[in-house]
Amino acid sequence: MIRIVTRTHLAHLTEQADDAHARVREVQGLADAAYGSHIREVFALTARAEDAEKGAENASRNFRLIAIALEDTAAKLAKARAELADMAERVQELSAPAEGAFMVLLLHYGEPHSIHPDQAAAYAYAATLGAPLSGWRLADERPAAAVPWRCVPFIYDAGRDYFRSVTAPSIEPSEGAA
Predict the structure, then answer these.
(1) What is the distance between the alpha carbons of residues 41 and 39, in angstroms, rounded to a whole number?
(2) Quick one: which of 33, 99, 100, 149 has the most CB atoms within 10 Å?
(3) Contacts of 150 (CB under 8 A, 6+ apart)
(4) Close Cβ partners of 168 (under 8 Å, ≥ 6 residues apart)
(5) One digit per residue, pLDDT tens: the chain, 178 residues?
(6) Which run of H or of E encompasses 21?
(7) In 75-148, where do the E strands start and end?
(8) pTM of the entire predicted model
């Protein structure tokens, strides 16, 4: 079939082809813009993912370092508590006088009354002065002047002309130390 195309019809077809080309360029531009936007979004998401991975690695590394430091500190604390317990035991040992290594000062209402070779002798002597033989207690927080009779053990170092009280405050390890 042969078709005869007139100038007007040809102009109209050319115009339609130009409009179609313009529409193709417009759609191609929109597609390129969408593709470019998609690529930029992919790059941005990839960068955020890499940053998040680096942050997670840093956090993990920091966590491991803190855990190691905490383990070291816990070991040092356990060692220090053990040393403190050993020191407290040693202080107790040093505070406890050897049998017969001390004398006893007998106080009557806080005033020195007499010196005796041991507690039994001090108790017996106090009994001759009217104090009961039983009922003696360890020294407490009351002032010495408020107690009728009290025995105070002490050690005399003749080499240094020095008196030292045998009673030392008890040192208990801190909470959790043992």
Answers:
(1) 5
(2) 149
(3) 106, 107, 110, 139, 144
(4) 91, 95
(5) 777 878 998 899 899 999 999 999 999 999 999 999 999 999 999 999 999 999 999 999 999 999 999 999 999 999 999 999 999 888 877 665 455 467 888 888 888 889 898 888 999 999 998 888 777 777 778 887 888 888 888 887 666 676 777 665 544 555 655 4
(6) helix 7-95
(7) 103-108, 111-116
(8) 0.38
